[in-house]
Amino acid sequence: MLAPTVRHLAFARDDGQPLDFIPGQFVQVHFNYPDGTATKRSYSLATMHDHALGPGETVEIAVSYVAGGAATALFEALDEGQQIQASGPYGRFCLMAGDSNRRYLLIGTGTGVTPYRAMLPKLHELMETRGIEVVLLFGCRTPAELLYGEDFYAFAEGHPNFRFVPCFSRELPENPHPDVRKGYVQDVLAEFAPSAEGDIAYLCGNPNMVDACFEALKTAGLPVPHIRREKYVSSK
User: Fold this and answer.
1) Which positions fall inside the FAD-binding FR-type domain (predicted)?
2) pLDDT 10s digits, 31-46
3) Do 123 and 190 share a domain, yes or no?
């Protein structure tokens, strides 16, 4: 459990085949409602690899538990060694080869931070080759909900061009890191002076946050193609 209602899960393909994915993509998990109706849910890959997943390497996802949710019932019942059906990867919420920006603003709430964990190896490469800067603004309510915080803090310690800025809306941690902020990510964003000249922004998570940050970034002058969005909606 990454948080009281979020579980980290790792899967290996049972056919032994590799999985070629681009950080930022997602898989769809297929299952049935109790009445037999087929349905599916999408989960961003959290796996930190800078290569295609080889045979036996794991596909990692973070799953939010929703009270009464059919997908929640599926995942809560899973034990080690059991199987799910999935397809993919899909999606274009990815770092793009043609980008020439100076800085990435990565903004996420809840499990919307998952794709940014998968992007860390690629960001390391871009820092080495292009000298880019990265600011990751991550919004959650309490320290207990800081998903993958240890991974992001460790990456920041090893990469001076990477700032991890947790934004807590309800409760601050004891002895907070200097980059910790109180409030919502959309309110903290202005502190980092988004610039049309050198920034590309990624928004992932709560739809209200995504909309608010999208408008703020447009007001700051960022062209729409430089504001890349993915909304996470909890569904039962």
Assistant:
1) 1-96
2) 999 899 999 999 999 9
3) yes
Residue 93: CB atoms within 10 A of its CB come to 19
203: how many CB neighbours lie within 10 A of its CB? 29
Contact between 103 and 72 under an 8 Å Cβ cutoff? The reply is no
pLDDT in tens, 23-78: 999 999 999 998 999 999 999 999 998 677 887 789 999 999 999 999 999 999 99
Rounded Cα–Cα distance for residues 28 and 161 (Å)? 33
> Do 86 and 107 have their domain in common?
no
Question: Which of 72, 125, 122 is CA-nearest to residue 93?
Answer: 122
117 and 224 inside one domain = yes
Q: CB atoms < 10 A from the CB of 38, how many?
A: 8
Domain residues for 194?
103-231
> CATH code at 153?
3.40.50.80
Is residue 118 classed as helix, strand or coil in its secondary structure? helix
Of 28, 53, 65, 22, which is closest to residue 43 (Cα–Cα)?
28
For residues 54 and 18, the answer to whether their CB atoms sit within 8 Å is: yes
